Every structure is written in C-alpha cells, then in structure tokens.
Input
Amino acid sequence: MTESPRPAPGHGGWRRALLALVVLFLGGSGLVYEYCLSTLATHLLGNSIEQFSLIIALMLFAMGLAGLVQRHVTQPARVAEAFVITETLLGLVGGASAVLLYLAFAWLSHFTAALYGLALLIGFGIGLEIPLLLRINAQWRADLKDNVADVFALDYIGALAGAIVWAFVLLPRLSLDRISLLLGLANLAVAAATLVAFWRQIERRALVVGVLVASSAALAGLMLTAPTLITDARQRLYAAPIRHHTQSAFQDIVVTGEGQRFSLYLNGHLQFDSEDEYIYHELLVHPALMALGRPPRRVLVLGGGDGLAVREVLRWPGVEQVLLVDLDPAVTALAREYPPLVALNGGALNDPRVQLAEPAGVTPGEPVPVIKQSERPRDALLGHHAQVAEVRVLHLDADLFIRHVAGTWDAVICDFPDPSSPDLAKLFSLEFYQQLSRRLAPDGVVVAQSGSPYTTRRAFWSVADTMEAAGFKTTALHAHVPNFGEWGWQLARRDRAPAPAGPPPVPTRYLDGPVLAAAQVFPRPIGRPQGGAMVSTRLDPRIMQLYRAGEPLTGPTWFPGATPHR
Output
C-alpha cells in the first residue's frame, strides 16, 4: 500500500531519475549549509571547535525533530506539495542565512540567538527533506528496505560530493555570502523541478507556485543588494573608515584608517597599527638576531605575510637570504601591491631591490636575489650593483613546511596569530618545536610571538615550557605596545639561553640597550607562575585552553567608593 497514486507504466522513469538527482543534491547541500554556518560563525566569533560542534549538533537535533513532525502530513496527496514548499522555504532561509547573520552581527546585540536560531531553522528544513522523499519514492520502491537503501545511499554519496565541492571549489573561490545565496537558488531550482515533475499530484498549485515565485524574487533581490548591505554592516564593525577589503579562502582581510595611519584586521582581529607596529616588530626580530652572536645569513620567517618582520630582517647587512612562509597569498599580495603597506614595510616584498618568487607545491623554489646599487662611492658612480640578500615567498602552512621542506637557517622568526584554535595551537606545540629544532643551524635562534604575559599569562609561559620540553633554553621578553597592551616574545637556543645585550647594530626607532635590558625583567604579576610545566602538544593543546581561559580578575568587582549591588 503506497501513500500516493502509482504512476502509469512507462511514465515514471524520468521522474525516478530526477528524484535520484534531487537526493544527491540534497545530501551535498545539507552538508554545505552546515559548513557555511559553522565557518561564518568561526570567522565572526572565533573558537572553531565550539562553533562547529554547537551548530552541527543543533542542526542534527532540529533534523530529528523534523522527522517527527513530518508524520503530521497524513494526506498522501500532500506529500509532494509539502516537499516542494519545504525545499522552497529552505532555499529562501538557507540562501539568505550568511547575509542575514553578517547583518545581525553588525546590528544586533544578541547575535548568537540569531545564529543558533537560524541553525535550528535550516536543520529543521533539511530534516524534512529525506522523510518526504522516502514517501515519494515509495511509489516505485514499495519495499521499505529497498526504499531506504536507495534514498540513504544517494544521500550519503551526495554528502561526500558536497564536502569535496565545498573544500576544493566553493570555499577557495567564493565568499560565504555568495556560497549561501547560490546554494539557496539551487534549492529553489530543485523545488521548481520537483513541482513540474509531480504537478498532477499537487492540489494547491496556486499556493505552491506563489510561495516559489515570492521566494525566488526575494532571494534574487537579496543577491543584488547584498554587496551594499554587507559593506554598510562591515563599516559599522570598525571605528575608522574601511580603506580596503579582501575575502580570501582563509580569512576576511580589512584595512581601516584615516590619513597616513592605518590598521590591518584579519577576521576582525587587529594584526597591526601603523602607529606602533615598529615596537612589536623590532622586539620580534632584532633581539633574536643579536642573540645569534654572529652576523645572520639565512633567516626563515614563518607567518608575517605583511612583510613588516622581513623589513626588520633586511636591515641587517649580513643577511643573504630570507624565506617567508605564509599560508595566505592574499596577505602577501597586499604587502606587495597595496601602496600604504608597501610604504610601511619599506617594499620588503616588492621594492626595486627585491624580486619575489612564488613557488608551487611544497618546495622552496629558486632563490631570487635582492640587488641594490653599490654603496661605495666609486662603484656607485660606475653603476656597479651588488647582491645583498635573497628573498623567497612560499604559500604553505608553516607546519607542513617545517615537516617536509629541507633546509637549515640561522634564525627562525615565528610570527603566528594567537593560539585560539586547534589549527593555530599546533604551531605552538611540542611536536612543532621538535621539528623546528631540526631546521636550525647548530647555534641557531628561534623567536616566537607569545601573546600577552598579562591578559594570557599562563598561555605566554606555556610557550616557554613547551620550547624547553623540546630541548631549547629560553629567554622571555616583554614590552608595552599601545594597541596591543603588554606583549611578549620567547627567544630560544639549543646550546644556551639567548642573552641579547646592548643596542642593536642596525637603525631602530624604539629598541636600544636599556630598553632591551628592561624587556628581560618580568615583575611578579607577569612573571612565570608557580606550578608544574604547562607543555602543549597536538593531542593536548593546553595552550589553546589557557589562552581561551585568560587570567581571572582578582580585584574587587566594583570601582573603589562605589556601592555594591546586592
């Protein structure tokens, strides 16, 4: 006994084929919706583990509820109608979800309510699809085991295809708002195709067509207006005017500022401000190169695609080769092509003295010489030039580079973002530093930006503990960077603790002998905390947990003289 009238012989083949394609698409589209919401939430809120876990769990929960609710579609003639309306509304809500969430993040104070509410709503729509399709497919596969096998096999195959398309086609090429809008339009196209295929089984045709047309018009209108809406919302998130924006496959890149001052943000997090970045980068680079005890020749910079660390390295006249490894080509392109940043980094990646090679794969490529006019007056008058360094750029995850690309360096500069996610925490792990040790010259030096010894004190000292567990001896530095607050770095060598002293032998704006000496003195509130070593590994990324926890406030909960609330 089937719920819907069995089609006449010879007239169901193309409908069955269409239904199979629909199931394949829905398996992929449901997965892409989950990834799209989770990725957007991670970009806006951070903490990828929490966002992916919560959103996917909420969507699966809503899918379960939908499976119970679909039982209330009791009239067999209404099954195809319910599917078309479900698919239409899912296309509208899912397609608009990324744009709506970005607007909510900019304008609403309760963004998470909108985020998780949309996750539940989209999950509910996805959960209605498969049960309704099972009931439609029963027209041809009345045996339950055959029906379930057909639909679920196609659904899971579609999920695999969706994951591959998401990872290798959609995310590298399109922004999240475009992905969701295009996917929503595809859902509407599926609804329209199903409507045509099962036209005679749908009783309230005017209602279904009206919902489909209205949803298509609304989504098309949103697609046309989305760029303006998103631009206005993005500006609301930043105090200074937005001067440049790029969405790469890895992150949202924004430059803000007025006049000659500007700031770079990645996924909403400040990377540097042109007003005080020199403090950070001078402490990052020069103490490490001074601690080497000899002129550095080969320097590896991991991260730092803005070119500011490379700028400081190239101040050292003995440097012959610099290799910059950065994951995101969009950041290094900005450092080469965006005039304010090119001026700030001194053309470290793209001035007349520097040529850049962008090798493919995981090989460091051929070194490209940095040529400048000879500084000796007689040679300069004769037009002589000399090679002063080699600069290479490699777009690759730093962890993959350290594990797979051969070579040794006198100094390694780790300029990574804070360890707020597993992907970043692995760059502060015991295994990473053990691999890094093999890439150093016998007397080589490593420096790692390590966050704030004040607001994330235990995470800061966890970097030192992890380096020491990997066989290094460490020296900590700290300084006040106005836009970051109290900030710190860890220096490390295998043979002895680094001991940089005296003024740097190159021109600097901030760092001098007394400043460097003071940077190595840690008052008790920011000194190494008591207790055992806090070593971070790939299996136990303690630094991420410590970073996320921060440092608890120990003072009173109200300002002095204020009356406490009961």
Remarks:
- The CA atoms of residues 97 and 227 lie 14 Å apart.
- The chain has two domains: 13-230, 274-549.
- The chain has 18 helices and twelve strands.
- The domain at 13-230 is CATH 1.20.1250.20 (Growth Hormone; Chain: A;).
